[in-house]
Amino acid sequence: MVNYYDILKVSPKASGTEIKSAYRRLARKLHPDKNQGSEETALKFAAIAEAYEVLGNPKERVKYDQRMADSRFNGNGNSDSFFTSMNPHARRWRQMVYEKRYNDIIDRMIAEERQEAMAFQKVIYPLVALLVSCVLAPALRPTIFTESSIISIIIVVSLFIVGIIHIVGRVRDGFERFTQPDDDIHESILDDNERKLKPYSSLQTAGILIASVLICIGIGLVIGINFDIGQTVLGRMSSPAFTLANLEFIFYPPIITFLVDMMHTIASKFEQ
């Protein structure tokens, strides 16, 4: 029986993400477009595509793993073997092995679904926090820089830097997991389900994200100037006019995003 795990060079215990990464790495290396139509690499590409078609689908992978287990116990050709014996004790032992293997497969699928959900939340929570804070910060226009000590300013700047680094990391992880790569061969190495889950390329997603942030900041500025929230709510702004001091609001979206994401991470650990 063909061992698809060996073809993709992954362990039978590999996660769905590891299998997908292994397939993409090999597909990019062996893709016909990058090998002048070489017949040898084309055959290898077909083999890894076939392997991923099975192992990349959780339901098909369960069936394949069950066939592998059956082959392991019944394919040695020795009728006297304990693995093929009709002895009641041997049959019971084989049944226990099958059940253990099947339960391991189901547990792995559940764990992968949970990991995928957590990965999605790690992208969505900071993204929502960033967009909401991009509206609130310019609308409220806090003035810690002009009314606080140098220590407070240092703390704000430090948190701002940490927040920027944190957002960049989250965005990078999100792009790798939930967007299509920006190259000429990515369409041919994504299955139909993945294309539906990843309708946009990394470049398109980056453009949408930047546009969303700018729109939210614009909405916040309009709200703050027209309704003078910074003055009526906080009593800190003597005029709604846009001054250099008002630019302080740009420091707070990354800070708020970082704090919200940290709270979500801590809450998630308690839920586990």
Describe the 3D structure:
- The structure is a single chain.
- The chain has 272 residues and is mainly alpha-helical.
- The model is unreliable at 230-244 (pLDDT under 50).
- It is elongated and about 85 Å long.
- The protein is built from 11 helices and no strands.
- It starts with a helix and ends with a helix.
- Helix 4 (58-74) packs antiparallel against helix 5 and helix 5 packs across helix 7 (150-178).
- It folds into 2 domains: 4-86, Orthogonal Bundle (Helix Hairpins); 117-271, no CATH class.
Key structural traits:
272 residues, mainly alpha, Helix Hairpins, 11 helices, 72% helix
Which helices and strands appear, and what pairs or packs with what?
Blueprint: H1 4-8, H2 16-30, H3 39-55, H4 58-74, H5 88-140, H6 144-147, H7 150-178, H8 192-197, H9 202-227, H10 229-232, H11 252-271
Short description:
By secondary structure, the protein is mainly alpha-helical. Helices cover 72% and strands 0% of the residues. The longest helix has 53 residues, at 88-140.
- Characterize the largest beta sheet: strand count, sense, and whether it forms a barrel: none
Average predicted confidence as pLDDT: 77
Terminal Cα span: 39 Å
Taken from the alpha-carbon principal axes, the silhouette is elongated
The helical percent reads over 70%
